[in-house]
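Hi X.,

You mentioned you wanted examples for the new student's onboarding notes, showing what a folding record looks like when two proteins sit in one file. Here is a clean example. The first protein comes first, with its sequence line followed by its structure tokens.
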Amino acid sequence: MIKGAHIPLLVALLCSLSPALAEEESSSGTPQIELLHQIETLQRRADKLALGELSANDYHLAKARAWLDLARGEYYENEGDGMVPAAIGQATALLDALDNKRSDIGMDTPEQITGSEAVRPDLWSKIASLKKHAKFSCGQRATAEAEVQLVWTGHEKFESSWASAKSYADIAEDLLKQAKKSIDDCAGPLPDIERITLLSTVALFDFDKANPGRSARMQLDRLVNTVKLATSLESIDLVGHTDRLRSDGHPERNQLLSEKRAESIKRYLIGKGIPAKKIHASGAGSSQPIVKCSTRQSKAKQVECLQPNRRVEIILRTVK
């Protein structure tokens, strides 16, 4: 997450590296660099809600964060078809409503926005059925993410072809399978589980590094406070992730790196007084990306674009 004090430095760095990027405008008339500022500001708002009184499993918050993932991914693709500002607009509306504690937030999601087209009506039909389920709360997060993923699929189809969009649709299908399984396995109200993702577009983890950077300290300290405030804490699961780079045909390298990242967060929590016996660390390698980036970009651009995939996900479980 970018802290306020780092924003001027980031702007100066981006402008020095790519003056054209700072001057280029999107189809909405907003300079591209300003779109990045908007995404980062909204991400900080979403993180504050997720680490505060609102669970990260909340349907509307999960959808807002998914819109931001879409906006960030397409920003680094340098799209000029209006998709990025449209996704930012969707996230802004949801976060404004959540910040104002509105109780009348709708659950409708547009099947297409600027720069996309409607695809896979069969999956939209499944989404509608899931939302009507009595135990929908157990699958709300995955459903929200699937909805935005389908819009992203429509964007890939709009700008290229179905061959290009298919992998995005596959992710949406997998998310809906997760949502249905969560609903089917749900024995009652949403389990007392909170999911937190530690990531940063500045650098939670630098490329090919296992220890968190200095910019991660505030995130980690907020995590510690959240853990200490949790009543009847039963366990903490830490799952490390990497980007798709570095493997060079050896996925075990990224698997090991993801495990080291989770272990580094575990050591930090233990050092802050969290009981070691409650913490379990594991790694998922590069198998669960949250953003995709074009392989046509330079290696440096791919490293920058794939930063959100270098993360650790935390699952807090409390005894009912």
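Then the second protein repeats the pattern, sequence line and then tokens:
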Amino acid sequence: MGTKGDKAAGWYPPDPGLKPPGAGPFRLLRDGVAVGAVAGVLSGAPSTVHALVTGADPLAAIRAAGNLLLPADARPAALLAAGAVAHVALSLGWGTVLAVAVRRCPISPLAAGLVGGAAIAAVDLGLAAHGPAGRRWPLIRALPVGPQVADHLAFGAIAGAVLAARG
């Protein structure tokens, strides 16, 4: 038989300081992996469409990502494989960062994702690729910046949409 306190507990709203079921580091990790996987696959559409429309090589961006792990003069097939590995790692990492940041942001997940995508573009393209360290990655520096920024914005928007759908 329950106590008086047990019966009364059902009449009051739950403590707002308590975390909802499923919250915590494992949920953030699951969200980050989901965000990274979905956004990582779909967010390359702007640069791919741009390459196809302009007659450029649609695989140049993935080979450029391979330049993060291999020298620029490596075999094209090796650069493609390394680019896939680098892209998966970066997508899952940034997806996890966005899973944390978007959940803590007071604006809508889509807007927060776009802001996050812009911040990631600033880091990836501005500081890393076109900053002093970028000299090591000539294939990334050679890519047109606009389509790459569009890919990063798409990554953020898709991340926000995935997080909104996951609740």
